[in-house]
Design goal:
Blueprint: H1 2-19, H2 39-42, E1 51-56, E2 65-66, E3 72-73, H3 75-86, E4 90-95, H4 98-106, E5 112-118, H5 121-124, E6 127-142, E7 158-162, H6 166-178, E8 184-188, H7 191-199, E9 205-209, H8 210-218, E10 224-241, H9 246-260, H10 262-269, E11 281-282, E12 285-286
Parallel strand pairs: 1-4, 1-5, 7-8, 7-9
Antiparallel strand pairs: 2-3, 5-10, 6-9, 6-10, 6-11, 11-12
């Protein structure tokens, strides 16, 4: 038993190198991509302080997490910063609890939300989303499990998720209802804690957005593996207040990055090469 405990702790140490609140380094070969201001796009929005403030909730690797110096880094940070640069604005991430980001946009404390938001019909009722990537839900399981883990037949399992994400609200909670409660949900404040719960055996499986699951599996030193196929593909988006000027301006900035190739280069630096778009969208409506 002592050996098993020590082995589990060692595995957590390996996984925590990528999904906890402290990351050792940026990807090999990473470089900051800072495009020049485009005056016509900058004129689309009036930002009085010249700073695009973005609510975000690290860790959610590879989208946002902290490096050893406490800086918030990740693919969404790089992309939003580049979009802000095109808009002639500085970029300032603001760390918040995930559940408070959208209310803070509504209240005017934040300009935008950049925290792995899945663009859903329910969220669109009160917010607009500048779409930049398509992703789905992907499950993972410990490689050492003896259980038959099947996302399509989940009754009897314990599944770890990040609280209030689509994996919780649209995936495991409806499945728990179908199982008449015979599915235990472990909800965590962060995706890293959900991944660690699966890795250490507290949960039979992890349900998360496909890039997040892939990142955790790739950094788990073989302790986690994908199970089942990706499903419920949907667009990721940066959230803005409904009918805000930020939406069209950010979409125009994103289209500029797509046209110049900077968009694909930013995502490729983080190993994301699937689900890319070729036309900027708001709520899945093309803007050009």
């Amino acid at each position: 038993m002592k050996y098993k405990v020590l082995a589990a702790l060692a595995s957590v140490t390996v996984l925590s190198g990528c999904v906890t609140n402290s990351e050792p380094a940026l990807p090999d070969g990473w470089e900051e991509i800072t495009p020049e201001r485009v005056d016509a796009i900058a004129a689309m929005v009036d930002d009085e302080d010249g700073v695009l403030t973005a609510g975000t909730n690290p860790p959610f690797a590879p989208f946002e997490f902290k490096d050893d110096a406490g800086n918030i880094v990740g693919v969404e940070m790089d992309l939003a910063r580049a979009m802000a640069s095109v808009m002639g604005l500085d970029f300032q991430p603001v760390e918040q609890d995930f559940a408070m980001i959208l209310p803070s946009i509504q209240g005017g404390q934040l300009d935008i939300g950049v925290s792995g938001f899945t663009d859903t019909e329910e969220r669109r009722q009160n917010f607009d989303f500048v779409n930049y990537l398509y992703a789905g839900i992907q499950w993972a399981q410990p490689t050492s499990t003896s259980k038959d883990v099947d996302p399509e037949n989940a009754c009897g399992l314990t599944v770890a998720v990040q609280r209030t994400t689509v994996s919780e609200t649209d995936d495991v909670r409806p499945k728990a209802a179908e199982c008449d409660g015979d599915l235990e949900i472990l909800s965590y404040d962060t995706s890293d804690n959900a991944a660690i719960a699966a890795l250490t055996g507290r949960a039979d499986a992890l349900s998360a957005d496909s890039p997040v699951t892939a990142y955790a599996v790739n950094r788990s030193d073989g302790q986690l593996e994908m199970v089942g196929e990706m499903f419920d593909a949907a667009p990721y988006g940066m959230a803005v207040a409904k009918d805000s000027d930020y939406g069209p301006a950010m979409a125009a900035a994103l289209q500029h990055l797509i046209d110049t190739g900077d968009y694909a280069r930013i995502l490729a630096q983080w190993g994301i090469e699937d689900g890319l778009i070729d036309t900027a969208m708001i709520n899945e409506r093309p803007q050009s």
